[in-house]
User: What shape does this take?
Amino acid sequence: MNYLTPFSYYRTPQFVHQLADAINHACQTQVKIMQVCGTHTWNYRRHGLAALLTPNLTLVPGPGCPVCVTDQRDIDWVIELAGEKQNTLVTFGDLMRVPGSTTSLAETRSHGADIRIVLSPLEALDIALAEPSRRIILLAIGFETTAPAVAAALQSASHLGLANFSVAVLLKRLIPALRYLFAGEKPDGLLCPGHVAAVMGQQEFAFLAQEFRLPSAISGFEPGDMLLALLDLTHQSQAGHARLTNAYPRLVSKHGNLAARSIITATFKPALSRWRGLGNLPATGYELVDTLQRFALYPPVSTTPHSTGSSCLCDLVILGKRTPGACPNFGKGCTPDTPLGPCMVSQEGTCAAHYYYPETASPLNHQIKKWGD
Assistant: This one.
């Protein structure tokens, strides 16, 4: 396989069909691949790749949506922060309609709460500088890809000596969490997130093959990227091999983005974090280093298991144990307009991807022809 194929060729009909045919020829038995990244899940369905691939190949979701893996108690805590009159909560837009136990950020804002939607954590600094009488709280939810930008905001806040700036620290470390996810049952292969690998480096995923004997491939997000990685995983699974392959070398290097890793290390240290569906996991979250602790807000500690009830299966969907269609509320009581859980409203949520892009819609062949025009 040539992982250095020119990028312009990744979307051509010839390349995509060539890869699909190779996968179908190689996949002679049932193979189950997990997509850790929510963007992989969305693009796989958006581009209708299943229409080209053998039924022997099954793709299941994993805990790759930062919003979806945020514990319900932490969502409720954030909504409480937003409801306090002296606070201005700064957040990304995909958090707004995520349902809490009784309300959401969108509903809280409709009742007068000061909640601002931004595209970058650094925008929170501008708000803090412009409104010194307000307590500005940046809601930090994300994985290793979001951590560098949040770290840059914190380092700048320290340099500026801001007294009205805080960060609600709900960032998570996806790579260490995989150790807990695969401690028991595991799939036949893992499609590793290319953007996380671009920050942290290829070598951070090496333990998957070495310790868990799990075939793994780092993948980009174009159809050609994903099919290249799936072809490698199919070959590994059929041959009984387990190795880590970098199928995204145009962006991912062995050691990642050294500047991004450096600012993460200077700003955070590993800490326990609680995950929806997985519980409290050591060293899978972040806390601020001592010199930056004055900016930190952490959710209340609780060791009591939390139940979201039986109306939403998001806890199981993000672990690959249920499909969205297995939920009796899917597309009925639970839609993007009336979500019962984060998987239906997040921009990386599995249920939303299945709702917007059913496998019977938008055949890939038609889309590929448009790309090739």
User: Anything to note?
Assistant: The first strand starts at residue 31 and ends at 35. The CA atoms of residues 268 and 289 lie 5 Å apart.
